[in-house]
Amino acid sequence: MPKREVSNRISAAILMYARDRGLDVDDLCRDLPYTSDQLLDRKLWIENTELLTLWQRLEEHTGNAEVGREVGLYAMQQHTFGFLSTILRLSGSPLRLLQKADRLVHYFDPNRVLHLHHVGKTSAIVELKRKSGRPQNRYGCSFARGLLAGIPTLWQLPPATVEDLSCAVTVDHLPPIDGRVYEIDDSDRVFSHPQDNPAERREEGAIAEDGTFGVGEVVYGANACLYRVTWTADTTRAWWQRVFASEADVEGENVANLEQDLRDLEQMYEQLHRFSSRMESVVDERSVALESANSELAELADKLKRQSVLKSEFIADVSHELRTLISAIVGFAELLTSQIYGPLNERQHAACDRIVVNTHTLLHMINDMLDISRLQSGKLELALESVNLRQMLDESLAAIAALAEQKKLALLREIETEVPVSILADRTKIKQMLLNLLTNAIKYTDRGHIKVRLHCPAPGEVAFTVRDTGRGIDENDMPLLFEEYSRVGPNRPDGGTGLGLYLTRKMAELMGGRVEVVSKLDHGSAFTVVLPVRGEELNAIREIDENPSYLDPGRNRLKILVADSNQAAAQFLGLTIQAAGMQVSFCSDGRRLIAQVAEYRPHLLVLDPELKHEDGWNILRRLRETIDTAAIPVVVLGAAGQQELAAAHGAVAFFAKPYEKRELIDCLLSVLGVKEGAQ
Ligand code: ADP
Q1: What is the pTM of this model?
Q2: Does residue 602's CB lie within 6 angstroms of at least one atom of ligand 1?
Q3: Which of ligand 1's atoms lies nearest the C-alpha of 368?
Q4: For residue 54, which of 62, 612, 231 has the smallest C-alpha distance?
Q5: Could you tell me if the CB of 439 is within 6 A of ligand 1?
Q6: What is the pLDDT of residues 276-313, one digit of tens each?
Q7: Rounded CA gap, 378 and 371, in Å?
Q8: Confidence band (pLDDT; 50, 70, 90) for 42?
Q9: Three-state SS for 204?
Q10: Is 471 in the pocket of ligand 1 (CB under 6 A)?
Q11: 440 partner at 20 to 30 Å CA-CA among 66, 139, 255, 422?
C-alpha cells in the first residue's frame, strides 16, 4: 500500500503560486515532513493530508476562498505539468482535450476520475468523481475547476468559464460532509442537518437511479461534482486552426494511432516518474547510511594513524637501545680478536669472528627497522656530501668479505673508466643500499660468485650492479619484491625481515634514482641502483678528478662545513670546494647545525646566517661561547651591509652575495693556512 498518494505537482503549483505572490513559502511548509525546496522540486508523492494542510494555509494567507481554482488556472498557464502539458497540447481538439483532462486529473490524483457527459462546439459537461467513494474536499473541486478553465490557456487563449452544476454524495456514504449529516427516509428522500444541531433539518432531494442524490447547494465534500465548461467560439476556431488545418484532418486511423501512442507514452512517463521518486528515496536512505559509514571509517583511520605513529616511535626507541647494546658487543668482540686482552687460540678466534659477523648482521637489521620508522614518519632525510665511489665500494666489500668467505663465494669488482671518482650524495644511504644488495646476494647464493660493477648506464647517471649466481627469483614473485615486509621464494633463510629491498628502493627514489632487477629462477639475479648525476655536478666532479689538488694530502684532509638553507647554492659551492681539493659537508637546518659541527668537527664553517628554523647569528654566538667550537673559523656569506655584524660575531671573513667563488676559495685556503698555488 503506497503511503503517498498525490503527485507533488499540486503542492509545487501551490508553492509556486504563493511565491509569485510574495508569500512566505517556508511558513506554508512549517512542520511538514518536507522543505519548501523539496516540494518545489515536483519529484515526490505526498499524502493527501499534507496537501490539505497546504491548501488550508494558502487560503488563510490569501483570504481567498476560491484559491483552489486560481492555483489550477495558474498551474495550466505556467505549464507546471511539463511533459503532460505537451501531450495535452498535441491532442488538439476540445473533445480530445477533455478526454485528456481525465488523464490529467488521474495523473494528479489516481483516486479521481473525470467523466465527459457532453461536448459541444463551445461547451462541455464534465463530472469529477472519487473512485473510492470518499468525499471530495472543496479544494480538490475548485482546483479541478481551475484546471478545466486553464485548458485553453495551453494555446495562449483566454481561460474558459467553469460553473459547478451540482455536487452529489452516494447513498453508501453518509457520514458528515462539511459538518452536515445526511439521512434517507423510507421513500428514498434525503435530508440533512448540521452535525451539532439536528433541529435544523432540511430536505436535499431524492435518490437518483444511479444511487446518488443532488444537494441543494454547492456542497464540497460530496463524492462527485458536475461542471459546465464554456469557452468562446473564437477559442474553438483557434484550436482547430492552430493544431490542425481542418476538422477532417483529425479524423481517421492516424489520430487513433496517435492517441494510442500518447496513452502509452503517458503511462510510461507516469511509471518512470513513480520509479524515479522511489529510487530517490532509496538513494537518500543509502546516502545517510554511507555518510555514517564514512564517518566511522574516518574515525578508524584516525585511530590507526595515531597507533602507527606510536608504533613507529616504539620501534625507533627499541631499535636505538638495541643498537647501542649491540655496538658494544661488536666493540668487545673486536677487542678480543685484536688480542689486546691476551692471545686467543684458533677456535676462540673463530668464535669471536662469528660474534662479530653475526652482530653486524643484527645491527644491519636494526638499522633497517630504524630507517623504516624514519621513513614512515617522514624523517628520513638526505645528508649530502662528496662520496668517493671507489672507496665506498671497497669499504662495503671489505665489510661482507667474511660472510662471502664463509660460503666460499668469490667477490669480484669492476669499475668502468667513465665512472666519476666522487659524486655529491648521501654516503651512508648509498653504502646501506649497496650492503643490502650484497648481503642478499650472499644470502641467496650457494655457489659461484658475486660481482659488483660500477658503471654509467646513461649520460647523467651512475649505477652499481650486484650480480650473483644464486637461486634467482620466480617471475611471479617479481611484483612483490620491493614491497614492505615481503619475502619471496621457496624457503626463507634466517635473518631476513623483508625490509632490505623496500628500503633500497625508497632510498634510491629519495635521491632521485631507481632500482632495477633482472633475474631468472636458478640462474642468478642482478640488482642495479641507478642514481642521477647532474650535468654541472659531473663537470665539477670531472674537474675534481682532473685536479691534482684533489690528491694533495694536505688539502684532502681539510673539512669544510657549508651551512646554507639554499641547497642548490650550497651544493654548487661544495663542488667548487671539492675542486679545490677539500672535503665538504652540508647543513641547511639551523636546529641541527651545532650538533653537526660537534660531530663533523670541520676545519672551517661557511655560514649563510639566513638558515631554516633558527637564526644563524644566534648559532654563531653560541658556537663562539662553546669551548670546543670557539676556535673554528667562520666565513659568513651574507647580504650587503652585514659585514660589521659578521665581524662583531667573530667571523674571520665576510662575502656579500653574489660573490666570486674563486675569491672565496682563495680566502678559505688562506684562512686555513694553505698557500695559494701550493697544489
Ligand atoms: P630479506 O630480509 O628477506 O632478504 P629483502 O627485502 O632484502 O628482504 O628481499 C626480499 C625478498 O627478495 C627475499 O626474501 C628474497 O626472497 C628475494 N631476494 C632478494 N635478493 C635476492 C637475490 N639476490 N636472489 C634471490 N632472491 C632474492
Answers
A1: 0.42
A2: no
A3: 2
A4: 62
A5: no
A6: 777 778 888 888 888 888 889 999 998 888 887 777 77
A7: 10
A8: low
A9: strand
A10: yes
A11: 422
